[in-house]
Amino acid sequence: MASLLHQIQHHSVTISAPLALDGGQSLPSVTIAYQSYGALASDKSNAVLVCHALTGDQYVAGNHPATGKPGWWARMVGPGKPIDTDRFFVICANVLGSCMGSSGPASPDALTGAPLGMTFPVITIGDMVRAQAMLLDHLGIARLHAVIGGSMGGMQTLAWASAYPERLASAIVIASAARHSAQNIAFHEVGRQAIMADPDWQDGQYYGGARGPTKGLAVARMAAHITYLSEAGLTEKFGRRLQARDAKSFGFDADFQIESYLRHQGLAFTDRFDANAYLYITRAMDYFDLAEAHDGQLANAFARAKDVRFTLVSFDTDWLYPTAESRRIVQALQSVGAAASFVELSAPFGHDSFLLEVPALDSIVAGSLAASLA
Amino acid sequence: MKLRPDLAIIADAVPAASRALDVGCGDGELMAALREKGVDARGLEIDPANVTAAIARGQSVVQGDANHDLADYPDNAFDYAILSQTLQTTERPDRVVDQLLRIAPRAFVSFPNFAHWRVRLALLWSGRMPVTRLLPVAWYETPNIHHVTVSDFRDLVRTRGIAVERAWYLSGDRPTSDAAASWRAEHAIFLISRG
């Protein structure tokens, strides 16, 4: 699986400057794979950074090189879309630690050339953001019109506003949180244990071998996928319907449609994602608590971000990052006097609503981007 | 687009370059007028469709409830707090007024006057809760759970030591006098400040 994945050529840049990591180690140089859409204005004022989620990548729009399917936010990004590439220069970078061309556990060791595997240092959301800032420096973009992201992309957006408030006019945070809850960490730990319990994981040294931890990664994806959907959505889509059969088998085949669906989701995921990258990125999310480095006070994290315009959106069926988490952020922003907008939208799709057809989200994103042009 | 008469009065009275919070801002009609004159206007609104519409217009609006969520704003976060046609819908209007004057030193409060002669007559003649142009909904489904009159509001601010800096009284979209307001005003707008 991973071998196929790593044959794809991504557009990337290697920046030969060290990146000091939150964990204490540092990377001697950083490779960042990225895609851009639209044209950068001559005064470089129209750049919008899109931050992707856990299993997302830089292929926001256009077709994905591994799956051939449209990019993960093709409905949001493109000519005439809410993030209008006729107006904005849209950048999306594969996050540090991921597997679509940026520095991560599959990257070669500088000395031996062998994949780093688990010797790649543990990274954080803050490290991902610092790597993105290095990319923008490389591109000569001092200030962004906006940073936008859903889920883990929203965490990066919050970290951007906290760390580099002078470098963005607007922050749009969708279906996200300023910290991982015990429940969030718990689901991720199930996924990581599934991967590490797979004998083919081999302590992460499976690159180039015949077998990788596809079974463990598929189970991790199955568990996580449940958290992205709502109970009502699952019931409507699958109910207790049986899969291509008239009666229960009294065995352990995928009798139910939901079982078949999850198995398919798990398996398909292993074609496009690397198990070690999944370990590293879920760890980064679990370590995320924006208030932690600010005396535990979330408001302090935004003390310098008074002039950033914030837009936060949650979904009523999202139980992974529920509305209360967005409200906490809004309260912190209000207490420092930052201009904040917030709405809880009604959508049936659970956490995944940010990726799906929710017309109100489109008008909010378009309106928020237009507002900070003024 | 023509503003509702009470909103036009408020839009006119808020000075340029000030900071204002419109509590119950709807889809942002007043905020749009305030922004045009350079006011840093932000909003609080309970209805998500209205919040969405306001954000889509480029405004800063938080979905929330005037009964509970005003507590999230720090003291003196704004120069003006605005509560138009909403006081009578709140659980505890007295506490909401206190919150407005905590968030900002000055507040505009507007409400339909329940002692307008048409309301008095309707109650007197029919013996039923009045349904009028400004109060168009039957008693059992009206959001107006705390009907208030011009005299009631004057009493409330007096007993709480709140100063009335200015008041406007409207009959239709025409002004009516201070003295006649109790009977003739369909609508009252008060600019109040900490006493």
UniProtKB/TrEMBL annotation, chain A:
Reaction(s) catalysed (UniProt annotation): L-homoserine + acetyl-CoA = O-acetyl-L-homoserine + CoA
Top-level EC class: transferase
One GO term describing the cellular component: cytoplasm
Pfam families registered for this protein in UniProt: Abhydrolase_1
One GO MF term attached to the UniProt entry: homoserine O-acetyltransferase activity
Start and end residues of each AB hydrolase-1 domain: 46-356
Pathway(s) annotated for this protein in UniProt: Amino-acid biosynthesis; L-methionine biosynthesis via de novo pathway; O-acetyl-L-homoserine from L-homoserine: step 1/1
Principal location: cytoplasm
InterPro entries: AB_hydrolase_1 (IPR000073), AB_hydrolase_fold (IPR029058), HAT_MetX-like (IPR008220)
Subcellular location: Cytoplasm
The keyword DNA-binding is assigned to this record: no
Binding-site residues for substrate, renumbered to this chain: R221, D352
Catalytic residues as annotated in Swiss-Prot or TrEMBL: S151, D318, H351
EC nos: 2.3.1.31
Gene3D superfamilies: 1.10.1740.110, alpha/beta hydrolase
Keywords of the record: Acyltransferase, Amino-acid biosynthesis, Cytoplasm, Methionine biosynthesis, Transferase
Biological process, per Gene Ontology: homoserine metabolic process; methionine biosynthetic process
Assembly description: Homodimer.
NCBIfam families in the record: homoserO_Ac_trn, PRK00175.1
Family: Belongs to the AB hydrolase superfamily. MetX family.
PANTHER family: HOMOSERINE O-ACETYLTRANSFERASE
Summary of the function given for this chain in its UniProt record: Transfers an acetyl group from acetyl-CoA to L-homoserine, forming acetyl-L-homoserine.
Protein name: Homoserine O-acetyltransferase
Organism: Sphingopyxis flava
UniProtKB/TrEMBL annotation, chain B:
Database matches in CDD domains: AdoMet_MTases
Protein origin, superkingdom: Bacteria
Signal peptide boundaries: none
InterPro entries with a match to the protein in the record: Methionine_synth_MetW, SAM-dependent_MTases_sf
SUPFAM superfamilies xrefs: S-adenosyl-L-methionine-dependent methyltransferases
Database matches in Gene3D superfamilies: Vaccinia Virus protein VP39
Listed name of the protein: Methionine biosynthesis protein MetW
Organism: Sphingopyxis flava
